[in-house]
Task: inverse folding
């Protein structure tokens, strides 16, 4: 029997290289498809990550996550995950700078000078608990399904959701088709009540505000060569209900000077349809692996964005030791109703927001992950550090008078650190 | 919607019709490595999704779950 190489030529029979490839191929035959990979004996797996997220002078987040998975012998697995977010700090309120230098007294009694162009922020703190469960099951050699449930609770937000997807492997596992969907029944109940949109915020209602999210997903992935796989995933997300950010405000400016004289609450449409198309590539070099993806996003609020993500896994002493540099670029356009502020001389529009996250925005991420195993320990460890720099339009539409002299979206520098471990028992 | 279809078709066609050549089982040694996955670190990926969902206006990728956070 003569085996063909991937290029179609005859293989050098009996060579150590061929023996090595046959050995790996035998393993590969047992392992493929990845989604239907069967464990020889049932086992349990624990994954743990701890995130620190710190914006310079603003929000800090600590998030431990633990996930326990039961791996059954037939390829099924069942997992449960608990996550806790502890969030403190300050975020931009949406209001414009006062335009005058101010001296304020801090809680400790010290005097502090606030520059004329300082972006007003609002202090906040919150805690979020989230529970997720997943059940994955192969159906024969070609199909598999995954069903998930989700529940999370914050002081002013609750989410209950289900999701599922089905995967089919075609043409000797060269093509994988995925179809899925999800539904989330969320509820928003702002602290202090729900303010009426574009009002001075004094009139509030105590009712809970529903927010329903439906997601549809279609994907196709393909093995292109012995070293290269690509996939395309498209999602369509429909959001209905209360989509406003209740704590954000919009400044009312004097028409000519641009000096803020009052503020009104944020108001956004009650429907939003989001679309995304994600093209991903995984390429195996001689020893390392390159992961590349590009996502195009657009929605009915007029936002379009592009995201380019590149990771390069450089293997060190063994497969379990690696360094993975990461680079991500993101750019979005502003929502149709985004404005720096409103003129007090004009009638208010139907919808308006000054939330910088709905304005023109660019994000750059630079980081690296270090993966390792300590001695003969079964645990795999990862440590990741990343720097995120985010900046918006320094002089966005709607800025009048003195506001045009300020940088209304100064860069935000963020440092994140993740420590993770994973082991089976 | 037309733009969605056009874009999806333009991107999906090369994937579906990228030649009839199939990588044979004995050539799948590299593909069988556990790192040869579109999402080799799901927990780190989930953290990223959460961080960027709360700081940017976009969402969507390979997950069918939506909502779940009042952060944006």
Result:
């Amino acid at each position: 029997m003569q085996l063909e190489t991937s290029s179609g030529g005859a293989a050098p029979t009996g060579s150590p290289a061929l023996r090595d490839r046959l050995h790996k191929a035998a393993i590969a035959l047992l392992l493929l498809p990845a989604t239907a990979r069967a464990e020889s004996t049932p086992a349990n797996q624990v994954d743990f990550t701890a995130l620190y997220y710190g914006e310079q002078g603003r929000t800090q987040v600590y998030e431990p996550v633990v996930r326990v998975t039961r791996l059954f012998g037939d390829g099924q697995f069942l997992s449960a995950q608990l996550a806790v977010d502890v969030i403190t700090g300050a975020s931009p309120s949406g209001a414009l700078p006062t335009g005058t230098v101010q001296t304020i007294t801090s809680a400790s009694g010290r005097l502090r000078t606030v520059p004329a162009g300082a972006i007003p922020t609002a202090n906040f703190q919150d805690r979020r608990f989230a529970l997720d469960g997943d059940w994955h099951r192969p159906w024969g050699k070609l199909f598999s399904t995954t069903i998930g449930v989700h529940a999370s609770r914050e002081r002013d937000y609750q989410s209950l959701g289900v999701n599922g997807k089905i995967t089919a492997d075609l043409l000797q596992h060269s093509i994988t088709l995925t179809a899925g969907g999800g539904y989330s029944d969320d509820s928003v109940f702002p602290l202090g009540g729900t303010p009426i949109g574009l009002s001075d915020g004094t009139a509030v209602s105590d009712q809970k505000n529903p927010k329903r999210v439906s997601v549809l997903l279609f994907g196709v992935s393909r093995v292109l060569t012995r070293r290269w796989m690509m996939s395309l995933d498209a999602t369509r997300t429909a959001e209905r209900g209360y989509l406003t950010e209740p704590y954000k405000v919009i400044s009312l400016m004097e028409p000519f000077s641009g000096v803020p004289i009052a503020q009104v609450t944020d108001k956004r449409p009650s429907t939003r349809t989001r679309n995304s198309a994600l093209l991903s590539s995984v390429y195996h070099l001689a020893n390392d692996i390159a992961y590349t993806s590009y996502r195009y996003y657009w929605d009915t609020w007029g936002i379009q964005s592009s995201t380019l993500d590149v990771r390069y896994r450089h293997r060190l002493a063994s497969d379990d030791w690696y360094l993975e540099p990461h680079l991500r670029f993101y750019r979005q356009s502003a929502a149709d109703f985004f404005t720096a502020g409103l003129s007090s001389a004009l009638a208010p529009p139907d919808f308006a927001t000054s939330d910088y996250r709905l304005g023109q925005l660019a994000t750059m991420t630079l980081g690296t992950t270090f993966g390792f195993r300590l001695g003969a320990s079964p645990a795999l460890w990862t440590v990741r550090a990343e720097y995120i720099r985010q900046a918006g339009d320094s002089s966005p539409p709607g800025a009048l008078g003195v506001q045009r002299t300020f940088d209304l979206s100064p860069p935000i520098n963020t440092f994140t650190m993740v420590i993770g471990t994973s082991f089976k028992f | 919607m037309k733009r969605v279809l056009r874009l999806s078709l333009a991107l999906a066609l090369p994937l579906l019709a990228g030649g009839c050549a199939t990588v044979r089982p004995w050539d799948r040694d590299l593909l069988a490595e556990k790192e040869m996955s579109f999402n080799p670190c799901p927990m780190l990926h989930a953290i990223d999704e959460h961080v960027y969902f709360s700081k940017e206006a976009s969402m969507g990728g390979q997950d069918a779950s939506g909502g779940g956070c009042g952060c944006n």
